[in-house]
Design goal:
Elements (H helix, E strand, L loop, with lengths): L1 E4 L5 E4 L5 H8 L1 H6 E6 L2 E3 L8 E8 L3 H22 L4 E2 L4 E2 L2 E7 L6 H16 L5 E5 L1 H10 L3 H9 L6 E6 L2 E4 L13 E11 L8 E10 L2 H17 L1 H7 L3 E2 L9 E2 L1 H20 L3 E2 L5 E3 H7 L1 H4 L6 E4 L2 E5 L4 H8 L11 E10 L15 E11 L4 H18 L3 E7 L9 H17 L4 E4 L9 E7 L5 E10 L1 H5 L4 E2 L5 E2 L2 E10 H11 L13 E5 L5 H13 L4 E3 L6 H10 L4 E5 L1 H6 L2 E5 L3 E6 L1 H14 L4
Parallel strand pairs: 1-5, 16-20, 22-23, 29-30, 29-31
Antiparallel strand pairs: 1-2, 3-4, 3-5, 6-8, 7-8, 8-13, 9-10, 10-11, 12-13, 14-15, 17-19, 18-19, 20-21, 21-28, 22-24, 24-25, 25-28, 26-27, 31-32, 32-33
Helix pairs in contact: 3-4, 5-6, 8-16, 13-14
The chain binds zinc ion (2 copies).
Amino acid sequence: MAAVILKDGSRREYPQPVTPLAVARELSQRLAAEAVVAKVNGVLWDLNREMPAEAELELLDFENPEARNVYRHSTAHLMAQAVRQLYPGVRLAIGPAIEDGFYYDFDLDKTFTPEDLVKIQARMAELARANQQIERRVLSRDKALALFREQGEDYKVELIEALPEDAEISLYQQGDFVDLCAGPHVGSTGRLKAFKLTSVAGAYWRGDEHQPMLQRIYGTSFPKASQLEEHLALLEEAKKRDHRKLGRELDLFSLSEEGPGMPIYHPNGVVIWNELLKLWREEHGKDGYLEIRTPQILNKRLWERSGHWDNYADKMYFTEVDETPFALKPMNCPGAMLWYLTSHHSYRDFPLRSAELGLVHRHELSGALHGLMRVRAFTQDDAHIFMLPSQIEEEVGGVIELVDRLYKVFGLEYKLELSTKPEKFMGTEEQWEAATSALMRVLEKRGIDYKINPGDGAFYGPKIDFHILDSLKRGWQCATIQLDFQMPERFDLTYTGEDGQEHRPVIVHRVAYGAIDRFLGILIEHFAGAFPVWLAPVQVKILPIADRHHEYCRKLAAKLQKAGIRVQADLRNEKIGFKIRQAETEKVPYMLVVGDKEVEAGKAALRTRVEGDVGQVDVKEFQERVLAEIKTRKLG
Ligand SMILES: [Zn+2]
Ligand SMILES: [Zn+2]
């Protein structure tokens, strides 16, 4: 006897165990055709794998993020099967689903070319048409090891050896191809309809630079060709907006091999950086934040006290001062605690909002580094708010409003997520319970929609994360608000309460931009380099048509500059068409073209980034318009 309980609570009985696919077919052909994978008793499960005798069954289609990963990961297997057939001697590493697609890492003497990708994709299409069943097998450790040793699959052998002794080892077979995998997958290769291999890149085995360099082929897949096309168009747009490419073209920043993951900001980039900080200081000033600055390197003792030495050392950089070990700060918190300890505090001082634009260093694996999005040195717009437990709701609410004000300036939408107690945590259940429900109350009182991430909180407290949606609707985690009852204990922070006794304050750690470097990277892509006037490194470019207009242009430039506008006069001996095109490539918002007529009328001919040629304008009126746009931080 086997029983299946469906999501609506209905119960179905069978004389012997059945597969999710069989149940789906009974329910409806469409359901069976659209289901990618099942969830059985809460665990992802192959559609064609028999369920246990008592099974709660849920059928997931491609719209479900977990099912989407299964679909893409199954396509990675299909790719590996094709590569194996086409390139004998290749060794396979791993092939997970990633956001928006999948990859597989291969070890092969030959370098994959774009032509190879075409060939591999064609073979994948053949294998999909053959509609081979994808079947799960469970093997003993010894048998699995023998199998992969015989095939020369050293990486698979290494993966099996790294599994715990009692781990169940499963293999998946499709046609002649077998791969080590925990699963699950789609039921047959014919389920994989629309796929595209997008690129190939080098990647170290296990992301470690001391390990062999492998070739990583990226791809993506969808059930419908129209979905794939739409996605590829979006990718094309994202490529044009790639902040590394635009960062070079607009001369904003660079990265050097002498300091991997440590950006060098060029004058144009620093202009934007400083504008971001100016806005930041204005908004924080309104909320009464006090800005502090704390040291870059601090004594080992401090990091032991903060818990970083035990919990975070693998990401830290170390040095020595007067034969004493010191560490470069990976976070600003301990410095802020030292500041708090420099004076005595009373409940009347609370809430005490201290902010710090702190440069931190964290060791990321070199393979993980990516432009400004994943770096080793970055500046956080950090703040630590010291408060009474009774002030939590109001303070957290205030931070949410501050972040909302900031993001609105850039036209950025966002979603909120609440992360709860992780497996490894400090403090008591009661503290976590109180902190988590306080955060929930803040969100619910304000009618804010949010998603819960169970177990994803920091080890010292629950948190609220802001996920920005950029103009291509891509999500980026930026601001975060974390409640902390632990640091006050570790640093023995106290305040004198109304009762005259000493008590522990509560701390909120929060960032608004997050890492300013990363936020800048997001903005470059969000605006495709065409920054609003207030952020544009050069706001107005003045373009004389001939040498005899230079004098007029110089004076015009000086006048606008004095008024507070970032202006550049292009006095090179080039054709006007060339100068205009270059200013357009530089995405300068305004151009003033000056010829005989303009000099005579005491005016300038305006071209804008958005409207093109506008015609003659009064210089004074133009100046007022630009200044107003800067002042109001007008978008677009
Ligand atoms: Zn797999
Ligand atoms: Zn902190």
